[in-house]
Amino acid sequence: MVTYNIINDDCVKALEKLPAKSVDVIFIDPPYNTGNTQDKTPTYTKNEDYIKKKWKSFHASWDTIDNYELWAIEWLRESSRVLKPKGSMFICGSFHNIPEVAYALGKTGFYTIQWVAWCIPNSFPNLAMTKMVSANQTIIWARPSSKVSHFYDKEAAKSYNDGKNIRDYWIIPNNTSAGKGTSWKQHPSKKPVSLVSRAIDIALPKKGEELETSLTYGPLHVVDFFAGSGTTGEACRVLSIDTTCTLIEKDPMYIEWIKERMLV
Q1: What is the Cα–Cα distance from 222 to 262, expressed in whole angstroms?
Q2: Is the pLDDT of residue 181 over 60?
Q3: In this structure, are residues 23 and 222 in contact, taking their beta carbons and an 8 Å threshold?
Q4: What letters, b where the CB count within 10 A reaches 16 and e where it falls short, cover 77-89?
Q5: Residue 52: other Cβ atoms inside 10 A
Q6: Per the confidence metrics, is the pTM higher than 0.90?
């Protein structure tokens, strides 16, 4: 059973209120800093497919961050404080922001375990036709320190690759649901539940000595402080593991969407 804490607040302010060493896994999909703003006219507005399929431009005020590296360092420092010694952090990103996130991880003492390539077979087309279609994103898997190892559920990992250890190349279709009649599906940047649940599954202690070690710091706890449409909460529910899931989101509208999705 999953217990949800849904918090409407700035990510850093909300993290500051969480106890130290209380979180097993953090999964976040932060703003990518793409620079797509309302006052910027897209070059593809006359594209035939764009018109025919009635696609909408992606514009979000939260996706452009000044001094991105310094901002990332703020929430990474708090993430390091709240993670349990053997806890894990997963950070989604694209070529727009991953280099800056990697730099900030080094500045805050994190140890990078692995870079996972998420291959998206149904990725959105490049409507401007000025470059190749971007069909992959990166997930950085990191832990608070190089001195203490992390949990890795080998059996869970093998379950995603026919009994063999999983590779760092995940082929998972994107979430293309249109969102008719369901508010949270309208979020412009939601991730597929299967992507998030896989990451949490391989890093969350579930039995034996690993679980006992984790529980000495408190109940199993998963946190997403860029909660968006609440996909991390749904991923916890799909895994059917007794855990607390804290979802932090700054936008009040998205908070209502998360409540609609989770509290059912």
Answers
A1: 15
A2: no
A3: yes
A4: bbbbbbbbebbbb
A5: 8
A6: no
Question: What does the block give as tokens for 49?
Answer: 């497919």
The pair of three-digit structure tokens given for residue 209, joined into one six-digit string: 């000595």
Tokens 């706890």 belong to 221
Alpha-helical (H) ranges within the chain are: 11-16, 48-52, 68-82, 98-107, 154-158, 193-203, 208-215, 231-239, 252-262
Q: State the Cα–Cα distance between residues 73 and 105, nearest whole angstrom.
A: 7
Q: Which helix (H) or strand (E) holds 224?
A: strand 221-224
The pLDDT confidence band at residue 262, using thresholds 50, 70 and 90, is confident
Name the token pair of 242: 């007794």
With 0-12 CB in 10 A as exposed, 13-18 as middle and 19+ as buried, what is 53? Answer: exposed
pLDDT per residue as tens digits for the range 111-128? 999 999 999 998 877 666
